[in-house]
Specification:
Length: 263
Amino acid sequence: MADQFVVRSLEEIRFWSRIMKEHSLFLKLGFNCDDTQLINEADRFYRVFEDIENRSHSYSADSDPQTIYEFNNIVHQAVCHIWAFKRKVLGLILHCKILGNNFPLLVDHVSREANYFMKRLEQLNTGTLDALPDAVINENVFFLRIMADHAKFINHLLDPSERKLVEQARDFSHDFDQLLFQAIDLDSMRPQSQTQPLLDQFVDQNRVSVRQLRDFKKTAHELIEACRIKSIIPPLLADHVFREASHFLEILDSFDHALTKAR
Ligand SMILES: [Fe+2]
Ligand SMILES: [Fe+2]
């Protein structure tokens, strides 16, 4: 039987290293062209995560767990560094030391994603993954905020003349803010809130909205690729946020499955 530790580690690294690689590119595109040092740093991170991504595909479910344990540590180091880079950039923007097109919330957002990846690698290597009731709440609190941010980014990067799409993005932003607050409420009511029926309903309700948002992102990506709408959203960014929604949906599906089994 394949080692679960190896399988889960590789899944996480394959998904998130591509995400980290793309963040480097998005940050670079948002820097002022005179900020060559920051551009070079972003380029360096792009290559680091490209290498990690390639290496993760050279391993398989049958790889030696010890090798994967060491690989996780190497990746963890790299993620720590890109997290620090993102926080540095956030500081430069908020202190008005640099000008560019990276929204502070976007930089904070990508640093939160790096932090999540870092924590996941630590959990894998220390064998301390959350138990199901805690995982359900923690993952939702994290990802609902990520989804709410995405809706806000899309809203602000669409051309203002795309009134219908802007309105849809704003509705998603509101919807996910509400879901996030519900999740935070459930979080503060822990552990009493961790009953089977409440967690079931929580996962079901979030799944419906995430599915809708994922479909909206998919459509947006197709429209942008076909040059049918006006925006300053790079096609890769549209695809990136679509993949993050799909990833969250897979997590929700696995919770649904696990909760049904536990019934
Ligand atoms: Fe991202
Ligand atoms: Fe994101």
